[in-house]
Amino acid sequence: MISATRGTRPALNLLPKFQREPGAESEVRLKNQIICRLRFFPLTSVDGYRSVTKKLHPVPFQGLSDDCYLGLMSVRVPSMSVLPPVRRDRIIAQLPQCYSKKAAVHTKDEFNSKVKTACQEQRTGTVGRFKIAKVIVVGDLAVGKTCLINRFCKDAFDKNYKATIGVDFEMERFEVLGVPFSLQLWDTAGQERFKCIASTYYRGAQTIVIVFDVNDVASLGHARQWLEDALKENDPTNVQLFLVGTKKDLSSPAQYSQIEQDAIKLAEEIKAEYWALSSLTGENVREFFFRVASLAFEANVLAELEKSGSRHIGDVIKINSNSNNVYATSKKKQSNCCQ
Ligand SMILES: Nc1nc2c(ncn2[C@@H]2O[C@H](COP(=O)(O)OP(=O)(O)OP(=O)(O)O)[C@@H](O)[C@H]2O)c(=O)[nH]1
């Protein structure tokens, strides 16, 4: 038996307490009432979490307040579903367009046709089951990282600045082309004194969002350094980059167009997709996160297809080889090996 714990931050320190063998089931009780049954999954199926705990995966869950997390991976049980259905306003049926064609991850109008077919035929592998893409949001202090995440996840905006201490995160669930897909949005601290704590959470990111304030040229100038730090913990060939200018509501069109030129130039150089938005007014916030979710989803499905494609290639060779040749090859290998 295990217990649930309330807290405003993911209860990462509680995770070891909840550790169980993969496949084991437990009841979760709150005030002595069974509120859920859970099964534990091997962490290898939960990409993006290894960096945090190397153990188990916290999920927000139904019946408790939004700020409550359990150090557990959820499971569907016959009588009760742990996760609520994907919200209707998180359903993505078309590829959201980029902000500027001059600086985009790609400028295609539609999802990759292989991805669309795979979704129709339900051949998306682990995507749609446990796949969670980790997104880290980095940038100078007070550029608006927390407000950006809060505007999207909670439709809230706080005009008072409260520095992020270390990291915080939100889970956002989507349905892309009919397939469930989640983003784990990591809000990291921009303040120098918390940077070393925050950077320990960079690893395993599939998407890096570098945020700057469109009214603060210096914050754009620091973008390269943030990227460099984030890439120390990640494989540069395997991440999608976004350069995001915030607080667009505070700048005049003339001021904005000036910084936009520099931002697009930098985005092209670092191969990032450029966006400008306002968390105060909400301008482009939803569009931006939908684009992030869609591109991460597309990349994940393509990676799954590649994996399953290489398995098929192996199978074909086995089936098509005639038995004599196989024997001859293996003999030859053996004799080489003994020489
Ligand atoms: N006008 C306006 N103000 C914003 C916007 N986004 C953020 N702010 C304000 O900017 C300040 C800093 O915002 P935060 O989101 O806390 O900044 P942060 O980047 O998370 O800061 P750290 O946690 O220290 O790294 C707050 O006072 C916000 O209200 C925006 O789009 N428009």
Range of strand content: 15-25%
Across the major sheet, the strand order is 6-8-9-7-10-11-12
Largest sheet: 7 strands, mixed
Helix share, percent: 25-40%
Kindly, what is the distance between the CA atoms of the first and last residues, rounded to a whole number of angstroms? 59 Å
* H/E element sequence: EEEEEEHEHEEHEHHEHEHH
Task: Name the ligand types.
Answer: guanosine-5'-triphosphate
By DSSP (H or I, 4+ residues per run), the number of helices equals 8
Subunit structure: Interacts with RILP. The GTP-bound form interacts with REP15.
GO molecular function: G protein activity; GTP binding; metal ion binding
Protein name: Ras-related protein Rab-34
Membrane topology: Lipid-anchor
Indicate the topology.
Blueprint: E1 2-3, E2 25-30, E3 33-39, E4 59-60, E5 69-70, E6 91-92, H1 113-120, E7 132-139, H2 145-154, E8 167-176, E9 179-188, H3 192-199, E10 207-213, H4 217-221, H5 223-232, E11 240-246, H6 253-270, E12 273-276, H7 285-320, H8 323-338
Parallel strand pairs: 1-2, 6-8, 7-9, 7-10, 10-11, 11-12
Antiparallel strand pairs: 2-3, 4-5, 8-9
The structure holds guanosine-5'-triphosphate.
Structure description:
The protein is of the alpha/beta class and 339 residues long. Helices cover 33% and strands 20% of the residues. The chain has a seven-stranded mixed β-sheet, sandwiched between helices. Strand 4 (59-60) and strand 5 (69-70) form a beta hairpin. The longest helix is centred in the last third of the chain and has 36 residues, at 285-320. The chain is globular and about 50 Å long. It binds guanosine-5'-triphosphate. Guanosine-5'-triphosphate (GTP) binds next to helix 2. It catalyses: GTP + H2O = GDP + phosphate + H(+). Its cofactor is Mg(2+).
